[in-house]
Amino acid sequence: MSEFEKDLNAEELENQVEEAAEEITEEAGSTVTEIAEEAETAAENIQVIGDEVPEAVEAAAETAEAAAETYSEPKAINAKPPKGARISYERKKQLYGYGFIALWIIGTLYFFIYPLIVSLVYAFHDTKVGSGGMELSNGGFHNFVNAFRQDQDYSKALVETLSNTALKTPLILVFSIFIAVILNQKFKGRTFARAVFFLPVIIATGPVIDIINGNMSTSGTAGGAEQFSTMFEANLVDQLLNFLGIYNISEKLTEIINTLTSDIFNLVWNSGIQILLFLSALQGIPFSAKEAAQMEGATAWEYFWKITIPYISPQILTCLVYTIVDSFVDPGNKVMGIVLNKASSWEHGYSAAMAWAYFAIIGVVLAIVVAIINKFIYYEVE
Amino acid sequence: MATKKEEKLFEKERKAAMKARHKRMKAEGLEKYLTPEQIRYNRRKAVTGAVWPIFRFLILFGLCFVILYPLIFMISTAFRPSEQMNDPSIVWLPKSLTMNNIKQTWQVMKFDKSLLTTIRLNLIASVLQVLTCSITGYGFARFKFKGRSILFGIVVLMIIVPPQITTIPLYMQYAFFKPQFLAKLLTGGATSLINTGWTMYLPALFANGLRAGLFIFIFRQFFRGLPKELEDAAYLDGCGPFKTYLVVMVPNAKTSFLTVFLFSIVWYWNDFYVSSSFFTHNDTVALMLKNLDAQLQQDLFGGQSVSVRQLIVWLEAGCVLSITPLLVMYIFLQRYFIEGIERSGITGM
Q1: Is A242 in CB contact (< 8 Å) with chain B?
Q2: Phi and psi dihedrals of A130, rounded to 5?
């Protein structure tokens, strides 16, 4: 609709509502005038929002009419206000609610739901970009079958991404709780430390991090970052174990510990938001809880497990979901790499199928995790 | 209420009194006053109180170093002549400083032009996004309507679904935008919105911009935390819901607005996936940086392929250029980033 048409439409509707309001006023007296007026204001407000106008105004007119009907046959002489008026108030609030989210509803239908469905359709077809849009042919499940049966990289990358996430997520969570607890204490230079720890939030989402990581797209040789990562890959764990007199407990174990510790750079750079969330949760712990714990002589350790953890447990769930989603969606991970690769080489249907299969797996993982964690969460009853 | 100064004074006095009492108690023998458990507890507390700050300092210092290292390296590299990269005697401080890298990179990235484009895109989209997301968040927080939980489920879905799934259909939608006359109206003649700012503004205008789901979520949590009496008072005084929202709720949500606005700016600034899908000309700073190595090879080395190690000074100069605006903003506004989010209602899960 053009601006002009929209105006025209709205004017017309406004007139309709006014007419309706007049009719109703004649039938049912002054109270109803008020209701009709309300309907009018509702119509005006909704008009601001635009495309939703027709249904909303009609509904408003209906509300007014319904109110008029109930009013014209009063039941009791006094007592409560007429029942119709209450319902109309509730319905009015409903309408306002729709009014507030109308913009989002339109946007989501156009920019989210529709593309989502279209990409699902692509996933079941062979696609070709034509002059008038996407041309679809040869419907069926073959894209999905290909992805899992024939593509060797895809399943491998899937397993790798999953196990990577499974390893990384608890680490990030524990680390960010630890840092948040520290940053929540009082000490000199706290503001500076906080500012530094949130720096990754600003930088890590951009292409700068790629250069920092030395993963520039074209060539394999890393730049200065190489120097940096070797600095942290020094075999600290082995040395520590040797120092303690432990040799070769298990190759695999040392390997795991090594990957964990050498990854401290990624760990720190990926937990900015989580630290932020936990810090805000820590500040929500009421002072009385701390006071009571002190009275009872709780040590810091006990305080952490019996006060801190229960209080921030809802936030743990949030962070967990955020971390998992973030790690799955990261364009740097292997599956996303394959998906994007296929998309840029014009195999849109195939890429959509891969993305959807991947997305379904994320969904299942998230559902399982949330269901399990939800059992351990402590919600404060108010 | 005592002023801050007075409170400090009280604190000092309290501590002095405590100390004096401890001294007296110690002189008379602690056993008279405290049980053995209490003595043990106090002793342990004193020990941790002395040792913990040292550990804390070490941990924080080390981790701050990990975070700041790439930045220091970036600055150290960006201003040194390319030849000195291979000089093993140089670790941090180059023997001579040069602005050439920055200048050359500036030209390769067409930085003045791309900076202006980025700022324009960024500001318009962020402002629109913050406004519409806050309205939507308010609608979800304060009104009961049919299907609210389902619709909110869609908001959560928006957070979870990666943009990569919807990009290609969206591209088709923009490229063959319907209705046609609207596309012509917006672009001034063309039927495709690709390569115009509208691919950013339109979703933002309809609360569907970058990470809009998260922002709606934040606003909803925040508005839910505000007391209902605020609105009831406004309603009684004859405000309609929209006026109430504008006059009563928005001023109360200032910190929340600022936080979301800042995050929105950061994410739009850093975004290269979505913009690379809808802009084919590499107009924004993030896109320029993403393709910087190819550009550098073309412009500085005449199309030869050169290893990243040789390009590193220019790459780092590009990094410096593109994060400086964000860093400046962060230094001035970091208080709002950190404190804002603490009060912005993410807490009230």
Answers
A1: no
A2: -110, -170
Q: Is the peptide bond before B179 cis (omega within 30 degrees of 0)?
A: yes
Give domain A142-374's CATH number out of 3.90.1170.20, 1.10.3720.10, 3.50.50.60, 3.40.50.1100.
1.10.3720.10
CB of A118 less than 8 A from some CB of B: yes
Tell me which residue in A112, A205, A318 faces B349 most closely, judged by beta carbons: A318
Q: B122, B131, B166: which to substitute to probe chain A, counting the most A Cβ within 10 Å?
A: B166
> Where would I find the H helices in chain B?
4-28, 36-78, 100-108, 111-142, 148-160, 163-175, 180-187, 198-205, 212-225, 229-236, 241-244, 250-252, 254-270, 273-278, 285-290, 292-300, 308-343
CB–CB of B290 and A207 under 8 A?
yes
Report chain A's terminal Cα–Cα distance, integer Å. Answer: 49
The strand pairing partners of A136, in sequence order, are A127
Spatial neighbors of B267 by CB under 8 A, at least 6 apart, are A205, B210, B211
Cβ pair B168:A98 closer than 8 A: no
Per-residue pLDDT of chain A (382 residues; tens, 9 = 90+): 444 555 555 566 666 656 655 555 555 555 544 555 565 555 555 444 444 445 555 555 566 555 555 554 444 444 445 555 556 777 888 888 899 999 999 999 999 999 999 988 888 888 777 666 677 777 778 888 888 888 888 888 888 888 888 888 998 999 999 999 999 888 888 888 888 888 888 887 777 877 776 643 333 333 344 444 444 444 555 666 666 666 666 666 666 666 666 677 778 888 888 888 888 888 878 888 888 988 887 888 889 998 899 888 888 888 888 888 888 887 777 888 888 778 777 778 888 888 888 888 888 988 998 899 888 877 765 4
CATH 1.10.3720.10 residue spans of chain A: 142-374
- Residue A125 to residue A123: CA distance in whole angstroms: 6
B78 in A contact zone (CB under 8 Å): no
Helix (H, G, I), strand (E, B) or coil at A129: strand
Quick one: tokens of A342?
A: 């296929």
* ipTM exceeding the 0.95 mark: no
B65 reaches A (C-beta below 8 A):
no
Contact with chain A for residue B156, Cβ under 8 A: no
